[in-house]
């Protein structure tokens, strides 16, 4: 069923900080600067922003401390330090961090709880080895996996990736097309960590695997960065400087079957993802064939194959063939630009921000030299199809 708030709220402006491996200042300081830049970009003054929303999941694992304003930035912290007095402040804590935050902002505006909402994501990358295991003992669910070496996200994604390769006769050579496309586009974006650093298929295939068949380049690199957007009602957005981009629909997902935390069988991913996609298209009142700007989440490269199939953009078991021969080349008129914004593999680990930002830039006509002249409907995905969500955006309020 189509959402009652479909196309009634729009993105009116944005800002993005540089993306670095490690920043030389507290995350809160960068967040304040980026938030103020987004508000100015929307043609507003800080005192006009009466809503602040985020999903402040601390994006790391191990023995690191989450300190508000330094290593994470909650909505309450930013609201206190932004110099405004918002009447709506919220942080999303469920599944699908970016889609969930968008949902909070849209519902607040539609309900009249706020007029202009600042939505942001602030990512911190602590020093030290990423996802190092400091455990000296395992309890709870991890007692069944960690002692056997099944620990961390690489083991988690290697399981369904191997299943897909074996079931459909796919290969790492086919995955090279995903990495090359993501890095090609990320290399064109000034704030990207990989700016000016494209990747060849040969370089990707020469990389040794860490947890077979996953290699280091199949994973987005942990970074520090902040992105912010200003959302308001469709009516108010039309009077602001930039072309509005409307939020048409959204949906989030959960696995159908209860599993151990890192146990992600392929059937779980595809089954729950397909159900979520059906809700997504119904909420926006569009069909997969109408989407000309699908921005697929790629925190791990196999996610691109999984999203292609669960969204109905290609048949089941065909994604590994679909990505080859230029089918996802954003430079081709007939290519499906699933990574035209570089994604996580082409920008750095900004969660679902690259996907949301590319939808906004293209649909508002602000993508510069990368502008796609016919972009009309986009979808921004985040996380795995069975443990994340997606948002449909439109250039027109249909």
UniProtKB/TrEMBL annotation:
<dbReference type="InterPro" id="IPR055140">
    <property type="entry name" value="Thiolase_C_2"/>
</dbReference>
<dbReference type="InterPro" id="IPR002155">
    <property type="entry name" value="Thiolase"/>
</dbReference>
<dbReference type="InterPro" id="IPR016039">
    <property type="entry name" value="Thiolase-like"/>
</dbReference>
<protein>
    <submittedName>
        <fullName>Thiolase family protein</fullName>
    </submittedName>
</protein>
<dbReference type="Pfam" id="PF22691">
    <property type="entry name" value="Thiolase_C_1"/>
</dbReference>
<feature type="domain" description="Thiolase C-terminal">
    <location>
        <begin position="277"/>
        <end position="381"/>
    </location>
</feature>
């Amino acid at each position: 069923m189509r959402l009652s708030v479909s196309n009634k709220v729009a993105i009116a402006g944005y800002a993005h900080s540089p993306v670095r491996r490690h920043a030389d200042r507290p995350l809160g300081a960068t967040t304040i600067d980026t938030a103020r830049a987004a508000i100015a970009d929307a043609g507003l003054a800080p005192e006009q922003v009466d809503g602040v929303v985020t999903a402040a999941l601390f994006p790391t694992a191990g023995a690191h401390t989450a300190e508000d304003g330094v290593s994470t930035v909650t909505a309450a912290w930013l609201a206190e330090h932004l110099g405004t007095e918002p009447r709506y402040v919220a942080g999303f804590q469920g599944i699908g961090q970016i889609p969930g935050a968008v949902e909070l902002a849209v519902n607040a505006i539609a309900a009249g709880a706020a007029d202009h909402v600042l939505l942001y994501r602030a990512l911190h990358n602590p020093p030290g080895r990423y996802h190092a295991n400091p455990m000296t003992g395992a309890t709870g669910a991890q007692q069944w996996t960690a002692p056997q070496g099944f620990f961390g996200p690489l083991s988690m994604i290697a399981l369904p990736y191997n299943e897909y390769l074996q079931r459909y006769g796919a290969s790492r050579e086919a995955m090279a097309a995903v990495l090359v496309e993501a890095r090609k586009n990320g290399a064109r974006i000034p704030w990207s960590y990989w700016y000016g650093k494209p990747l060849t298929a040969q370089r990707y295939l020469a990389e040794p695997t860490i947890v077979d068949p996953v290699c280091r380049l199949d994973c987005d690199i942990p970074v520090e960065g902040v992105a912010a957007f200003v959302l308001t009602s469709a009516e108010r957005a039309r009077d602001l400087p930039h072309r509005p981009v409307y939020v048409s629909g959204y949906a989030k997902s959960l696995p159908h079957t209860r599993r151990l935390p890192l146990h992600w069988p392929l059937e779980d991913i595809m089954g729950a993802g397909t159900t979520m996609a059906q809700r997504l298209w119904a909420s926006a009142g569009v069909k997969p064939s109408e989407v000309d700007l699908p921005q697929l989440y790629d925190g791990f490269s196999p996610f691109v194959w999984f999203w292609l199939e669960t969204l109905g953009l290609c048949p089941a078991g065909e994604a590994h063939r679909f990505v080859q021969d230029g089918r996802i080349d954003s430079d081709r008129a007939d290519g499906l630009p699933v990574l035209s914004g570089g994604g996580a593999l082409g920008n750095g680990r900004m969660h679902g921000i690259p996907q949301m930002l590319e939808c906004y830039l293209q649909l508002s006509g602000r993508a510069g030299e990368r502008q796609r002249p016919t972009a009309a409907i986009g979808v921004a995905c985040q996380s795995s199809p069975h443990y994340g969500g997606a948002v449909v955006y439109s250039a027109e309020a249909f």
